[in-house]
Amino acid sequence: MTDAAGSVAIACSCGSLNRFETAGGYAIVAVDVIRTMTTAVTAAALGRRVFPAPTVAAALEQGACLERPLLVGEVDGRMPGGFDLTNSPAALAQRHDIERPMVLVTSSGTPLLHHARLAGGPVYLACLRNARHLGRWLARRHARVALVAAASRGEFREEDQFCCARIAGELCHAGYRPADAETEAVIRHWCAAPSDAWLGSNSVAYLRRTGQREDLEFVLQHVDDLPAVFALQQDEIVALTSAAEALA
Question: Does the reported pTM lie above 0.90?
Fold first, then answer.
């Protein structure tokens, strides 16, 4: 970073990426707390290779190129036929077959990663496990940062607003400025909120309604516990730092 102030923008959905691609020079952070980025980051942190796919067809094609792939994901809330596991960070964390590469497809999170990659700049992954750490790390490396949440059924969900605000708060503390009024409003509303302030989200209601409370508990129990940085490089999610490097 130079002495000049950087800027941070918060947006939602794949469509908003066009704005940052046109402007150029942005590092993109993909946010989907419930549950894509939490699942992907958890897998990569455990040492598993992770390959996100935008569609089921693309996931099957990717899996055919790997040895004993673990097919993980959901589309419209349902695990595709022939898959091994739904999009569950809690269930994934309990598995011991980390030598199996994971192919992940989800309704909104992995399509967001796919479109972010096409934008041409660096692409990072964020969830509540690494949000604050990522914000501090980005502040030293990118002058312009776009935090883009995956729209769930067209909504900018509360948990993703909260996650974006945590990252943006770290950047603003380092001297960055909000890029627009919408970004400033999200930061102001969520930055100082308690870590469970988003429990009124429709995503939370869905997990409770469908008997997937273990994933909600996993997210709540793993806040700021992973001081590491994860990025999408080519078609694979990789850890760029160890915990020690991220905190240095």
Answer: yes
